[in-house]
Amino acid sequence: MLTEKQVKEVVGEITDPFLNKKLSETDAIKEITIKAEKQHISLKIAVAKTGTSEQLSLQGTIVEELKKAGVQSVGLRFVEFTPEELQQYRAEQPNTGNLLTSPNAPEFIAIASGKGGVGKSTVSVNLAVSLARLGKKVGLIDADIYGFSVPDMMGITQRPVVEGEKIIPVDRFGVKVISMGFFVEDNSPVIWRGPMLGKMLTSFFTEVEWGELDYLLLDLPPGTGDVALDVHSMLPACKEVIITTPHPTAAFVAARAGAMALKTDHEVIGVVENMAYFESQLTGEKEYVFGKGGGPKLAEELQTELLGQLPLSQPDWNEEDFAPSIYDESHRLGKIYGEIASKIAFICENEKAATGK
Ligand SMILES: Nc1ncnc2c1ncn2[C@@H]1O[C@H](COP(=O)(O)OP(=O)(O)OP(=O)(O)O)[C@@H](O)[C@H]1O
Ligand SMILES: [Mg+2]
């Protein structure tokens, strides 16, 4: 006769037809009674809805599997999950298949720039966190395969867990994050080339268990190189936010990234001017240390909106929960990021409502 543990093992492996999860994962086995003398096992199983064809099919499978394991007779009783349980398991339900082709694909937003060091990654991580603060479901792909920086910027110390065939992204401040940095040892440089790059990027979309997302942000590598191009061709419907510094030449270079976006039919939804000025804490005076006018000029050139201008300032560091590049909600920049995030959400949601998609 099977022991309770063995029954759990056998039945736990069976998939719930409603939730598409193993019964062991949803804690669906509520009771097990074993009557050894009668070779009988009775079970209480929770399902999403009783009295359905799904229940019937599950019933059949359970009986079949237990009989295969040598049980003579099986008694089954079904109860319904509580709404809380159901919500929990539904929310975690795998987004089966490919995020790129899924009908409920999130809004993809790539953060691009013409050149390096203008603050793409800083803006990416803070926008992601700010969108999450607005209650959105947010994912972030650090698509800078060689020069990944997102894990350090967000202070991520864990690594993603692999479950079956899928990689579970790391959750940080309500943002699901994936980065090449999670898959290299000891901060060693990544020397993959050519096709591997595209492959890596593809697997970030297809092999990562993103679950349900409203927004998936992509922190692009600088410039208009191969990864940027891969992203452009891989994501037919991608929006872009272009980052520039206020210097007029920076805006020229950024315009190239914008032109690339437009060529690949990506929609530039706005420009963010970073390092826009330095504001003295003492006098409140603004100094335009990196020049002036680059952001508005670029926005005009790309016929898009200037979403915001971020001054020079570092986040307040917190030793207990170290995330060196994340601005607090109450920080001067945290508030500007909040405004930019709201604008982006507004643009995307309006467009969705207008196109009915
Ligand atoms: N508004 C700001 N005030 C102060 N420092 C900033 C600001 N924005 C970015 N930085 C700093 O500038 C540096 C470059 O920023 P970041 O790494 O975000 O740029 P990037 O465009 O992603 O660079 P790369 O092209 O190398 O990927 C970082 O050290 C970052 O902390
Ligand atoms: Mg970067």
Automatic annotation (TrEMBL):
Annotated ATP binding sites: G114, K115, G116, G117, V118, G119, K120, S121
Gene3D superfamilies found in the cross-reference section: P-loop containing nucleotide triphosphate hydrolases (3.40.50.300)
Biological process terms in GO annotation: iron-sulfur cluster assembly
Any one GO molecular-function label of the UniProt entry: metal ion binding
Keywords, comma-separated and alphabetical: ATP-binding, Hydrolase, Iron, Iron-sulfur, Metal-binding, Nucleotide-binding
Family: Belongs to the Mrp/NBP35 ATP-binding proteins family.
Quaternary state and interactors: Homodimer.
Function according to Swiss-Prot or TrEMBL: Binds and transfers iron-sulfur (Fe-S) clusters to target apoproteins. Can hydrolyze ATP.
Protein known as: Iron-sulfur cluster carrier protein
Organism, scientific name: Priestia aryabhattai
Lineage: Bacteria, Bacillati, Bacillota, Bacilli, Bacillales
